[in-house]
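Good morning C.,

I know you're traveling, so I'll keep this short. The sequence:
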Amino acid sequence: MGVKFSYMKITRYLEKAIKRDLARKMVLVGGPRQVGKTTLAKGYLKSSRQYLSWEDLEDRALLKSHKIDPELGIVALDEIHKYARWRTLIKGLFDKYQNQLSIIVTGSARLDHFRKGGDSLAGRYHYYRLHPLTLAEVDRKYSSSSLQDLLRFGGFPEPFLQKSEREYKRWQRERLSRVAAQDIADLGTVKEISLIELLVDLLPARVGSPLSIKSLQEDLEVSPNTVSRWVQLLEAVYYCYRILPYGTPKIRAVKKSNKLYLWDWAQVEEPGARFENLVAGHLLKYCHLIEDTQGHKMELRFLRDVDLREIDFVVLKDKKPVFAVECKSGDKNISSAIRYYRQRTTIPKFYQVHMGERDFVDRNCRVLPFRKFCKIESIP
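The tokens, ready to paste straight into the viewer:
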């Protein structure tokens, strides 16, 4: 099909899976603001009549009346989550038109957040999380130049396709303003928007390191519980995400700390942390794709012990480790942490990825360019 953006056509990685599921159930698509959800949905439509937005008064009246023309064949419902009873509404639409209409619903974090509040839609839909663009989507040749562009402009379609530092800064400022003022407000009563905006400014410098709620509490001068609640809200609106530690008492792994990353890795100033965040984004996308299309339980974690030996990422499938990934800014020799953990864990494969060209294997560890790793492990 190929999604038509303003500047070029890109085949989004979820297109075939969504098309397959639409034949049987509703499809709900969530993800960060401006990641391309509406554009993706419109790619399945042949007429503007098939696109219905809750923000359009005529469309709203049509939806509430449950009088959609079944001859349309497929409809995309946008911003429907802004209606307090949206779950009951789309349940009724699906039950009425199940054998006549395919329904795709797009929305912000609230769609994901509130769909978990009950089971009125159980058995009627599949949910997909749409991620920013990654290397496999923007360049089938996995070139170094495309990877550099992703590092510089991030994976959100508009700034990536424009490839302008000026336009990226303007887009970033406007997006963050909407996330704080609109998306977080949608989730509940939040009076301290200015402090949440300050938290948003503080978090990019925390990427890649164990997240200290105490440190943030001191900077913001609020309670630890308040900081934790605000971070959870930022996760719910797809601004950031945290990963948990992996390990067993045998290796004295840390249990309570977590690491934080941003959906827009280009916000991270420090080059090494930005590269690590980009890798995290690719791996989380890989995990979510397998979960959303195959049903396996996927987890992205990190490995760290009390002596501070750390490997950046471990991918788990149905609670079993699949591979581990360590990020390095240069194509150096295998890290001492990999040498240590490969003798003491059941992780079958280790990768050390970098931005250079060196590629070699040492036992069950391969040191290689990140772009080659993406190709080998079929990172979407």
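Safe travels,
E.
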